[in-house]
Design brief:
Bound molecules: adenosine-5'-diphosphate
Strand content: 15-25%
Number of helices: 16
Number of domains: 2
Strand order of the largest sheet: 15-16-17-14-13-18-19
CATH architecture of the largest domain: 3-Layer(aba) Sandwich
Radius of gyration: 24 Å
Helix content: 25-40%
CATH topology of the largest domain: Aldehyde Dehydrogenase, Chain A, domain 1
Mean pLDDT: 98
Low-confidence stretches: none
CATH class of the largest domain: Alpha Beta
Largest sheet: 7 strands, mixed
Length: 491
């Protein structure tokens, strides 16, 4: 597929203006599929983030933005129109800088996230920000009470590189709709998916200066200011559990509202009555986008009674899986985002072998793709549920298969994790699948190939997979404070 020629925005958006870094510094944006330098991005400094936070604070405290629902809806609709106009530019950016398979871009990476924006515009207008509660009696005097929802204030949003356009929009959309002002710090691996939004916001919308700031920076500690600065009211972070813990710890000092969408180690439980030929070939989808998705199911639990039969089907699916150049529409798996991530995944493959798991397919870096940060689709069998590769998030194209004895055993293994983000259950009996799913402690579950993702689906995790929910009215309400006003009823 021919992608549009790149015409990225390389400046940051601060206080309504597209600007270079305060010290003029830039960093390189590398295509993970080719290792070629695509270009550069303004390398935001602490002074830049300081100015962005100041601008967001002013826009929140000193303008009518937070109360003007109609203006917010209009700006979001203008942003949506601009995104639609430039969809091919955004596709070219996401495929090149994130190594996202072009075939996946209509779904998670580009078209779907753009189509989600009007939901936030509509919600800004239709949400019930203030309502009467029932009267109560206070020692003989009737009391009227009003329940009011108000934006939480300045939001610091920190996003990762795996689905960059989607995640940037998933932070910006509800925050602007709710009346917050925002400083977004995208991941340094995928800067243009953020900076292009800054260009569209500055050039195509009526967003008042300071309402939306987008500061790219190569130094993670520049972004850390969003979780420490007292002028920031809330932090919304998507990324690894390790960094999430740090963000939450830093935010605790000033008791910020914290939203965290972190890692996962989700299990697919295939029950013994499942139609294996229907269910198991799809397990190769663990490798989609190099396995770089927190909600991907990366553990497969098969009934011991049908273990070898199941393994053979999954193995065939892995052997037939097509991966490589993300611009080739046949490939659903491109490279890992960086050399560092590739090496990290390869380290887990070594560890898996050392801990006694059996490699059925893959197990290393592919010889036929010497350029780019590729990892072979890898299928491990006989994985001990306590072993490292069954417990830690690998974020690579790796599926770990473990046999179980009965339904109780399967539920126990599925729940034996610090994570609880997603999961799947397969059975030829929907009610049996549902009853197992009800016992799995996780935020989303796909039953018999079900699909849950949409803009109105609350998404998030149990346990160390995170705090709070993104998307839907629940996600919107994460960005609202709650106020109750009481007054005696006049007789
Ligand atoms: P990775 O290790 O793959 O980069 P992270 O979860 O660390 O994944 O990164 C996700 C996002 O968090 C990125 O935007 C990154 O710059 C940012 N980040 C990393 N460390 C910190 C930190 N200490 N404080 C705030 N943001 C951070």
């Amino acid at each position: 597929m021919a992608l549009a020629e790149l015409a990225p925005e390389t400046r940051n958006l601060i206080d309504g203006e597209l600007v270079p870094a305060s010290n003029g510094a830039e960093f390189e944006n590398v295509n993970p599929a080719t290792e070629e330098v695509l270009g550069t991005q303004a390398d935001g400094t602490k002074e830049d983030v300081d100015r962005a936070i100041g601008a967001a604070r002013r826009a929140f405290d000193e303008t009518g933005w937070s109360q003007d629902h109609a203006l917010r809806a209009r700006c979001l609709r203008q942003l949506h129109e601009a995104l639609e106009r430039d969809v091919e530019q955004l596709r070219a950016i996401v495929v090149r800088e994130a190594g996202a398979p072009v075939t996946l871009t209509p779904w998670m990476h580009v078209d779907k996230p753009i189509a989600m924006v009007p939901y936030w515009a509509d919600l800004a207008e239709r949400f019930d920000y203030e309502r009467e509660m029932t009267e109560i009696d206070f020692m003989g005097t009737p009391m009227r009470r009003l329940l009011r929802r108000e934006p939480v204030g300045v939001l610091g949003a920190i996003t990762p590189w795996n689905v960059p356009l989607y995640l940037n929009l998933a932070k910006i959309g509800p925050a602007l709709a709710a009346g917050c002002t925002v400083v977004l710090k995208p991941a340094p691996d995928t800067p243009w998916s953020g900076s292009y939004l800054g260009k569209l916001a500055a050039e195509c919308t009526d967003l008042p200066p300071g309402v939306l700031n987008i500061v790219n920076a190569s130094d993670h500690l520049v972004g850390e200011m969003l979780s420490t600065d007292p002028r920031v009211d809330a932090v919304s972070f998507t990324g690894s559990t390790a960094t999430g813990r740090r963000v939450a710890a830093c935010a605790a000092e000033t008791v910020k509202n914290v939203f965290l969408e972190l890692g996962g180690k989700s299990a697919t439980v295939v029950l013994d009555d499942a139609e294996f030929e229907k269910v198991l070939p799809g397990q190769a989808m663990t490798c989609v986008h190099g396995g770089q998705g927190c909600a991907i199911t990366t553990r497969l639990l098969l009934p011991r009674s049908r273990y070898e039969e199941g393994l053979a089907i999954v193995q065939a699916a892995f052997e037939g899986w097509s991966y490589g150049d993300p611009t080739n529409p046949a490939n659903l798996q491109g490279p890992q985002i960086s050399r560092r991530q590739q090496q990290r995944v390869l380290g887990y493959l070594e560890k898996g072998r050392a801990e006694g798991a059996r490699v059925l397919v893959g197990g290393g870096a592919p010889d036929h793709l010497p350029k780019g940060f590729y990892v072979e689709p890898t299928l491990f069998a006989d994985v001990d549920p306590k072993s490292t590769i069954a417990q830690e998030e690998i974020f690579g194209p790796v599926l770990c298969v473990t046999p179980y004895e009965d339904d109780d055993d399967a539920v126990r293994i599925a729940n034996d994790s610090i994570y609880g983000l997603s999961g799947a259950v397969a059975s030829s009996d929907d009610e049996r699948a549902l009853s197992v799913a009800r016992r799995i402690r996780t935020g989303t579950l796909a039953l018999n190939g079900g699909q849950w993702f949409d803009v109105d689906t609350p998404f998030g995790g149990y346990r160390q997979s995170g705090l709070g929910r993104e998307n839907g009215e629940m996600g919107f309400e994460e960005l609202l404070e709650t106020k109750v006003m009481a007054l005696p009823v006049r007789s």
